[in-house]
Structures are given as structure tokens and as C-alpha cells.
Design goal:
Elements: H1 8-12, H2 25-43, E1 57-59, H3 66-77, E2 82-88, H4 90-95, E3 104-111, E4 117-126, H5 130-134, E5 140-144, H6 146-149, E6 161-163, H7 170-189, E7 196-205, E8 211-220, H8 223-230, E9 232-235, H9 247-259, E10 273-278, E11 283-287, H10 324-343
Parallel strand pairs: 2-7
Antiparallel strand pairs: 1-9, 2-3, 3-4, 4-5, 5-6, 6-8, 7-8, 9-10, 10-11
């Protein structure tokens, strides 16, 4: 097991029940506008989302997207690893370290149900910050075309993240597998989280046809797909305060981060955090990117010096102080899900 369920008292001791929660006027306005947008979209409005202040928006599926959602759901439903070959110009990908890297041609190949080879053309480009800078193989954003992926196992996927190995070493592959397990645990606790699917990847270089590595990786559900699945939007709106967020989901977010020993996030700054707004305009934080968590304990993971903890194995609660009753519900949920968490393989 990666980490033990935290004891309720150890968290409650960190909660200042007298904390006064101040709301962000910008976020409240965005939430109110979002609710209006969603109601208008049901009535057939087309351009309402452009009025959402300066927030960047992902999501809301209409009836025409239902088939796409069903296909994506099928992809993430199974937890069986998929054996896939990723072919691209690895040399060029490794050198793409700018803020706006180009899309590179790539393919994903796998054996279909009839044992015939299925090859899906797509585009890929580098992403990330720390891993982009230091890893031998960078994390990628994939870009599937609906036409070329139709009828394949990747049908319905749009622009998901591919979390890849950092170094071609067994220890680094374990970091990938451990981080993947944390996404599975998060999904057990709340649907307001990213789904993930494990891949057995062969990394082939299109420049010379040689295989560069054989390592596990995983595909993450894209923010727009998550928003469409839940019926809302993901907004890139910074400045969220405790009073802006759904108290239960906010408490769950904080306890989950403590549970896995992760301090590498900022709710207000949207560092490794997304905000999901439901159709009533209620904001909920979503955690992602867990390789700096103590549960993974990557050799490169170092906590921020301002936190004054010796290493990532030292837990520190960094969630917002929200409604104490919400924490009671969260602790009950963790205890309820504990057998399922321990049963994950």
C-alpha cells in the first residue's frame, strides 16, 4: 500500500475552526456567469462562453458529442494495460523544450481484436515544466483526429496527456506505476477527478526505426472530457479562496493531498490544480500531477524550502480550512473506501 489512511484527529488538529473564509469576487462572478452560460446553452445559445471574464474554458458536451463521450468512457473503463507502440521522431521531441513547442507527427499502433495491426495517426508535442526540463523523455500532449481514430480503441479521445518515463530505468518506471495508482485512488473517492489508463509502451524512433525504450506510461483524461462527463466546465481562473469552493470537494482535495503526502500544489495559484464548475456555478478543485508526492517518493522530489519539511515523506496539510463538518464526511468516505483502496492492484 502506498500510504495509510490519515487519522481524523491528526487533520482536525490542523484546522482552525475559527478561520474566516473570504470569497474572491472574480471567481464568484465567473461562477454566476457560468451558471447563466450553462442554462443558456441548454436553450441553444452558441456564444455565451465568450462572456466568462478572462477565464479560459474547457467542456460542456451537447447531444452531438454523446457518441464521443461514450467512446472515451469505454477507453477509461477498463484497467487492463494496453500494449502500444508510439512512433515519432524522438530526437526532435527531446529537443522541443520551448513554451510553445510544435506538434510532431506520430502514430500509435496496437493489435486489434482480430490480431491485425491497427495504426492510428496523431500529433504529439511536449508539455510540462520540471519533467520537460530534466527528463530523458518528456511528457507529451497527444492530439487525436476524430476521423483517423474513429473505430479504434482511441476513438473519442481528443487531446489527452501522456505521462511517460523520465529515465529509462526500472526505478523511474515504478514512479509511473505508483503515480497511476494515485489517480485510481482519487477516482474511487470522487468522480471529480481525472481518469487514467495504463499503457505498455514501446517507444520507436521514426528517424531510424529503432526502439528506444519499453516502459509503462498512462493516458490521462483531458480537462474538456472531464468537464463534459460531469456536465460543466473547467475554468483557468486563479485566486480561489475557501469560500469560493464546494466545501466537501475542497475538504476531500486537501485530505487526499495529505493522504498521499503531496505538497506540490496551489489552489489559489492553480499549480497542479484545476477548477471544475458544475451547472449551478459551484467550483470544485481537482488535483493532478502526483510525482512529487511522498507516496511515490521519487528520488528527484524535493519539497519547497519554504514549507520547512525535511523531505516529501513528511506529510504537511496544505488544504484550505473549510467547513469542519465537511471533513467529518470526508473522513467517513476514506474509511468506507479503505478496503477498495487496499484492494487495488
Amino acid at each position: 500500500m502506498l500510504a495509510e489512511t490519515p487519522r481524523a484527529r491528526s487533520i482536525v488538529d490542523r484546522i482552525d475552526t475559527g478561520y474566516r473564509m473570504s470569497s474572491s469576487s472574480h471567481l464568484a462572478a465567473a461562477g454566476a456567469l457560468l451558471a447563466a452560460v450553462l442554462l443558456s446553452s441548454v436553450a441553444g445559445a452558441q456564444d455565451s462562453t465568450k462572456h466568462l471574464s478572462n477565464a479560459s474554458v474547457s467542456g460542456v458536451a451537447g447531444a452531438r458529442d454523446s457518441a464521443k463521450l461514450l467512446a472515451a468512457a469505454a477507453f477509461f473503463e477498463s484497467q487492463d494495460p494496453i500494449e502500444v507502440t508510439l512512433t515519432t521522431n524522438i530526437g526532435k521531441i527531446r529537443r522541443d523544450k520551448s513554451e510553445n513547442p510544435p506538434w510532431r507527427p506520430a502514430t500509435l499502433s496496437y493489435k486489434g481484436a482480430d490480431n491485425n495491426l491497427v495504426t492510428v495517426p496523431l500529433q504529439a508535442r511536449t508539455r510540462g515544466i520540471w519533467r520537460l526540463r530534466v527528463c530523458d523523455f518528456p511528457p507529451l500532449r497527444l492530439n487525436f483526429s476524430g476521423e483517423t481514430s474513429k473505430g479504434t480503441m482511441f476513438s473519442g479521445l481528443d487531446k489527452p496527456k501522456l505521462v511517460s518515463y523520465c529515465r529509462d530505468m526500472d526505478a523511474y518506471e515504478q514512479y509511473i506505476l505508483q503515480e497511476y495508482q494515485l489517480y485510481r485512488i482519487y477516482q474511487l473517492l470522487t468522480p471529480v477527478s481525472h481518469r487514467a489508463r495504463l499503457l505498455k509502451l514501446v517507444y520507436a524512433d521514426s528517424a531510424d526505426g529503432k526502439v528506444r525504450a519499453r516502459r509503462y506510461g498512462f493516458v490521462m483524461e483531458a480537462p474538456g472530457a472531464l468537464a463534459a462527463r460531469l456536465g460543466g466546465k473547467v475554468l483557468e481562473q486563479k485566486g480561489a479562496q475557501p469560500g469560493d469552493l464546494d466545501s466537501f470537494q475542497d475538504a476531500l482535495f486537501g485530505v487526499f493531498q495529505y493522504f498521499i503526502g503531496n505538497t506540490d500544489f496551489s489552489e489559489g495559484g492553480l499549480h497542479n490544480v484545476e477548477l471544475f464548475f458544475n451547472n449551478e456555478g459551484t467550483a470544485m478543485p481537482i488535483a493532478y500531477d502526483f510525482d512529487f508526492a511522498g507516496a511515490v517518493n521519487a528520488r528527484y522530489a524535493i519539497p519547497d524550502s519554504s514549507l520547512r519539511i525535511p523531505n516529501v515523506r513528511q506529510r504537511l496539510f496544505r488544504g484550505y480550512c473549510t467547513d469542519p463538518y465537511a471533513y467529518d464526511k470526508v473522513f467517513a468516505l476514506f474509511n468506507e473506501k479503505k478496503p477498495q483502496i487496499y484492494a487495488l492492484q
